[in-house]
Input
Amino acid sequence: MADDKKEIIIQEIISWKQSKLLPSKYCDFLLALYSQGEGIDEKVLPAINIKLLLLLFSNIMLLPLTYLVINFTEIGKGLQIFLVFIFFAGSFACYKYFSKVKFLKIPFSLIILLLISLLVSIYIIGFISRNIWIIAGMMYIQFVGWMLLGRKQKDKYLFTVGMIGMILLTFYIIN
Output
């Protein structure tokens, strides 16, 4: 077989492997077969595109938008809660999408989703009861949940965020 045809076939097999059209074992076998046992330099194609970056940016912007709607708007409480739940649903959709895509190693979308859920729960508990101990207890429960989720998923970033939250909340309560 001509070298240029082999090179085209090898590049196709590499693209199949990167796009996961075939299992990597099969691709490795085909690469070894067509390269006749020689090593292949697989070029990893960047998985970043503008749509993913725009979705990530919009997901990140949901956190300050949630904070702004809760604290700096003069609209009714019902509309505030509705907007906050819309933002929460948008963040949840971004989390589901990014968990399928495996876009980033750090789970930004999960951390943003959990921070929005923290803001929402603080707002709702504060709306129901103004007792600081109930709000602090709820925050501790959420931070412990984050740490347990981080340990279960073997995610050191999530565990660290939960630990930092607990430490900061403890310093806030002490002072």
About this structure: The CA atoms of residues 52 and 101 lie 9 Å apart. The helical segments are 3-18, 24-34, 50-71, 77-101, 108-128, 132-152, 156-174. The chain has two domains: 3-34, 50-174. The first helix runs from residue 3 to 18.
